[in-house]
Design brief:
The structure is a single chain. The protein has 150 residues and is mostly beta strands. It has one domain: Beta Barrel (Hypothetical Protein Pfu-838710-001). Helix content is 11%, strand content 50%. It contains three helices and ten strands. Strands 1, 2, 3, 4, 5, 6, 7, 8, 9 and 10 form a ten-stranded antiparallel β-sheet that branches. The radius of gyration is 15 Å and the shape is globular. It starts with a strand and ends with a helix.
Length: 150
């Protein structure tokens, strides 16, 4: 189960280059339900996501590069490329991590940030840092599967 809040970004946090960064490429084989393939640096995954906004089912299965490359031309819509920075947040007793996505290509200059939570209660009581912008959790317009079709 994935419990996640998503925000636009007002301003990039200071010292962004000091945080771990992944190069992501992802494509959607289906958007209802969501079936996605993703490359994270040199790792590959097939993901199923159920319906929902803040809370939804998510299952990740490993792929090898050959399977990823075979499935990539079968994608509906555009392939999304982004840089993902993992920024620790100190909010409450749990150490949360902000995943800041800086979109490349056609989706630039879009920047979104997501935070995953251990419970719905934690997600609903979260107070975002000042560099977070508008909360877009409860709209599907900023789901990557939607962005791939624009």
């Amino acid at each position: 189960m994935e419990i996640e809040r998503k925000y636009l970004v007002n301003q990039l946090p200071p010292n962004l280059s000091s945080y771990p960064c992944l190069h992501l490429e992802q494509a959607y084989l289906c958007t209802e339900p969501v079936i996605r393939i993703r490359r994270e640096d040199s790792s590959f995954y097939l993901t199923y996501k159920g319906s929902g906004l803040m809370v939804r089912e998510e299952y990740n299965l490993p792929l090898n590069e050959q399977a990823y490359r075979h499935l990539l031309p079968k994608a509906d819509g555009r392939v999304i490329a982004k840089l993902r920075y993992r920024i620790p947040l100190s909010d409450g007793p749990e150490c949360l991590v902000a995943e800041l996505d800086v979109f490349q290509g056609e989706l630039a200059p879009l920047v979104l940030v997501e935070v995953e939570f251990p419970s719905e209660e934690a997600a609903l009581s979260f107070t975002p840092p000042s560099w977070f912008g508008e909360d877009v959790t409860f709209t599907s317009a900023y789901h990557n599967s939607t962005l791939s079709r624009r």
